[in-house]
Amino acid sequence: MLDTDTYNEIDDQFALAYLIKSNEKLNLQAVYAAPFFNHHSESPADGMEKSYQEILKVLKLMKEKKYEKVTYRGSNTYLPDESTPVDSPAARNLVKRAMEREDDNPLYVVAIGAITNVASAILMEPEIIKKIVIVWLGGNALHWPDNHEFNAYQDVAADRVIFGSGVPLVQLPCMGVVSAFSTTGPELEYWLKGKNELCDYLVENTVNEASLVGQGKCWSRAIWDVTAVAWLLDETFMEERFEHSPIPEYDHKWGIDHTRHFIKYVYAINRDALFGDLFEKLAK
Question: Where are the domains of the chain?
């Protein structure tokens, strides 16, 4: 499962394409559109709808329209509190698919946006924590001065549901870890430009976004979300360890409690090896 705010930036498109093109190992079951609110949207609901349409656009570019029937709209808003789910087709579908799994054959949920849809599904049916594994790209590194990261600060209530639930969880922190997974315009053009429709769109989209946010003549962009997919593919792409589940606080700091359960925590990315695999698959 992929839960994605696809229109938010430029990296979700890379992640969706990478997941589909890694079908030698991964079997995409469904795609969920996550809410977001920034300069690309007018509200969380608008962000979710634009993400839904962007998912369909990427699938069309890839000539993978078969996934359209398993692409679902997600939450129109963030959690109102830590006990009230936001109903959506995505949350309901996740509950249904998870409850169909045996406890020893969990469903892997790759979440690369605000984690509202997944938290809502857990609140709707807490039994699914025995049947899923969440791989979340979100929050900053534990050593970073703050946890004011886009995926995390949009819905702190949802973050707290996830980190407090005891669900098997892999966290890929943004600043301080995944921020090292960045590329540049010349590198993208060398490896991807002219290879296929999808690659041309990804390059153009990335270059345009760099210009839009005023990055200047010499720029680089972190392709954050690819790393969450990569965690499923090859253990040599990153380094990880166990950490006590931190507490996402409403002041955008991490709370630390060494009596809490453990999660998997990624602390380093093998940048070159992962980009090598990504570029090879996208260019096919």
Answer: 2-283
